[in-house]
Design brief:
Elements (H helix, E strand, L loop, with lengths): L9 E2 L9 E2 L7 E7 L17 E3 L2 E3 L3 H22 L5 E7 L9 H7 L8 E2 L32
Length: 156
């Protein structure tokens, strides 16, 4: 994975298919961005390679592009812009990507128990969830669907 080369940002790979990273030191607050990478075989559009991103008009097709790999790309692009603008994040950031979501995430509990040194997270930013429609980005500020009377639960 390509990451911006900034002195305030470091990433490390682990034997488990997760990627923890650290940024601002032990006293700074933290955020965690969990996610999964679809790897299950399944039906696919005839004549298309599921492992190659293909543009068809204004739509893109690729294995897991909308469940959850596309969201990872959006998050990484936003962080790259933030780092380019500010030079540092100002908080600790941990990515945890795993590839067993469709089969019960085997090994994930053991991984998190073994890696208790990962920075604590004050906020969880989950980019995988329901969309209200395909034409408009949807933003929820809580897990699940917030109450209808909450003004922040509406899409922009």
């Amino acid at each position: 994975m390509a990451v911006p080369r900034k002195p305030s940002y470091a990433a490390e790979a682990t034997p488990y298919p997760g990627i923890p990273g650290r940024g601002a030191g032990a006293r700074a607050g933290g955020a965690r961005l969990p996610g999964h990478a679809v790897r299950q075989p399944g039906r696919w559009i005839e004549g298309r390679d599921p492992w190659t991103l293909t543009a068809d008009g204004d739509r893109w097709y690729g294995r897991g592009a909308a469940d959850d790999k596309g969201q990872h790309l959006v998050n990484l692009a936003a962080l790259r812009l933030l780092l380019a603008e500010q030079g540092s994040l100002g908080f600790n950031l941990t990515f945890l990507f795993e590839s067993g979501e469709e089969t019960g995430s085997p090994g994930l509990a053991e991984f998190t128990a073994t890696h208790r040194e990962l920075p604590r997270a004050d906020v969880l930013v989950a980019s995988d969830g329901p969309r209200l429609d395909t034409a408009t980005p949807t933003l929820f500020h809580a897990l699940g669907r917030p109450p209808a009377d909450n003004p922040l639960s509406a899409r922009s």
